[in-house]
Amino acid sequence: MDALCIFAAHYECAVHAYVLMENHVHLLVTSPGSSGGIDLAHALADVELEVRPVHAKRYLLACMRYIELNPVRAQIVDRPAHYRWSSYRANARGYTDPIVTPHPLYYALGRSLEARRAAYARLVRRGFALPDSVSP
User: What architecture is domain 2-133?
Assistant: First the structure.
């Protein structure tokens, strides 16, 4: 987690969602430069990478949900809030997480912090009901 914080700042990447799994990492990042996210991914892992651009208005929140439900789909936990190495608790519960930077579309979920958290938690619960169909 420390490396993610350090490298995200170094490569000027805003991390909107993440999950650190035993054998892989999912990140949803934005960067002012075209290669920031790729540079961040290479700094974190010296393995083959899969990098996909995301059309923000259409898929960003679905990607966040997909990422944060990964430990549930992998049957590591039964609820995303039970997985410690994820952005879910910051996005849906308001936990302080120095890695997470809310995206403007996340802010659009509600006028208040509580409304945004509740709206996001509902969005994730809808995906949780059918975890195999969550893919963006």
Answer: 2-Layer Sandwich (3.30)
